[in-house]
């Protein structure tokens, strides 16, 4: 629900003090009202009062212990996001100082909620923003726990992905996030040694991810899942061992989706990523075959005429790098 339409006002001073008392479970309706006031259309004073309370809560080192209680009892997306913000800060900066049982508790709770929400088509679509944020939290946990303290993560994820199409779609989103976090956004947040360790782990376990992607693209009829899988492949293609590309049906699979309007842009992004790779002369035959098929598609498919044709052809020149 949009808090701007609730008409909620900041709680009176006594209620504000009650929120700040974290020796007992936080009063979630009062927190909802405070968050609603912060995002609301009330007076500047009301927003300022709510802002002060929320900042105090964020700065309280014990506030993260209330997160599960808040997530279980609030129906307000902004309140849930506030709680997850608190949790994300703890994961980033205090994770290794937490007792093992608390770390495991967070890890298991976040994983369980993600599976619960993504196993049902209706809840997955309705709660997509919430699930996306939970995915981000999970990846922050992985940056600390995986691979040393969560060795089974990739096999577990791949196994879960095979249980339902919506779980699989979300697993693809998690894998995409993980790749982006390690290879694109990790600078400044992790040591070079940790980044190297994560890259090595992802590399060594990519076979399972590769097999999952190929299986999904050959078996599913879900356009959402196909798009999610293509987007995930795009995030991986710039760094995976080239054997996974040229010694498997991956290129043929990508080219199969290229003529389809719904997947053309994502497929083109993947092919462009492949074209930018440095792989010497060993795979030239496969590369030329890909390029020839690609150009043939541009010529024989009516769907590529006009502006669409010009756009794709201009992109295709980037492929001609061999």
UniProtKB/TrEMBL annotation:
Please provide, in alphabetical order, the Gene Ontology terms of the cellular component aspect for this entry: cytoplasm; nucleus
User: Which GO-annotated molecular functions does the record name?
Assistant: nuclear export signal receptor activity; small GTPase binding
Q: Where is the Importin N-terminal domain?
A: 50-116
Give the record's GO biological process terms.
protein export from nucleus; ribosomal large subunit export from nucleus; ribosomal small subunit export from nucleus
List, alphabetically, the Gene3D superfamilies matched.
Leucine-rich Repeat Variant
Q: What InterPro entries is this protein classified in?
A: ARM-like, ARM-type_fold, Exportin-1/Importin-b-like, Importin-beta_N, XPO1/5
Q: What's the superkingdom here? A: Eukaryota
Homology family: Belongs to the exportin family.
Q: What is this protein called?
A: Importin N-terminal domain-containing protein
The organism named in the record is Aegilops tauschii subsp. strangulata (Goatgrass)
């Amino acid at each position: 629900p949009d808090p701007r339409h609730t008409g909620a006002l900041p709680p009176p001073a006594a209620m504000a003090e009650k929120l700040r008392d974290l020796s007992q479970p936080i009063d979630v309706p009062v927190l909802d009202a405070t968050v609603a006031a912060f995002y609301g259309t009330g007076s500047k004073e009301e927003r300022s009062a709510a802002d002060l309370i929320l900042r105090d809560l964020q700065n309280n080192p014990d506030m993260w212990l209330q997160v599960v209680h808040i997530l279980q009892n609030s129906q307000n997306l902004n309140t849930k996001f506030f709680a997850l913000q608190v949790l994300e800060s703890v994961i980033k900066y205090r994770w290794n100082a937490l007792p093992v049982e608390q770390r495991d508790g967070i890890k298991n709770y976040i994983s369980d909620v993600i599976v619960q929400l993504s196993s049902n088509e209706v809840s997955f679509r309705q709660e997509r923003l919430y699930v996306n944020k939970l995915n981000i939290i999970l990846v922050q946990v992985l940056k600390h726990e995986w691979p040393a303290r969560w060795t089974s993560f990739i096999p577990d994820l791949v196994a879960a992905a095979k249980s339902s199409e919506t779980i699989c779609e979300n697993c693809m989103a998690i894998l995409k996030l993980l790749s982006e976090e390690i290879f694109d956004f990790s600078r400044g947040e992790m040591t070079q040694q940790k980044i190297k360790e994560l890259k090595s782990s992802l590399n060594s376990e990519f076979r399972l991810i590769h097999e999952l992607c190929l299986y999904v693209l050959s078996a599913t009829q879900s356009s959402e899942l196909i798009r999610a899988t293509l987007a995930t492949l795009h995030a991986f293609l710039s760094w995976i061992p080239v054997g996974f590309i040229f010694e498997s049906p991956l290129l043929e699979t990508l080219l199969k989706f290229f003529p389809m309007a719904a997947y053309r842009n994502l497929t083109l992004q993947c092919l462009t990523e492949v074209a930018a790779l440095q792989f010497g002369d060993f795979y030239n035959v496969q590369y030329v075959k890909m390029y020839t098929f690609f150009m043939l598609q541009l010529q024989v498919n009516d769907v590529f005429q006009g502006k669409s044709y010009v756009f794709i052809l201009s992109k295709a020149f980037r492929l001609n790098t061999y």
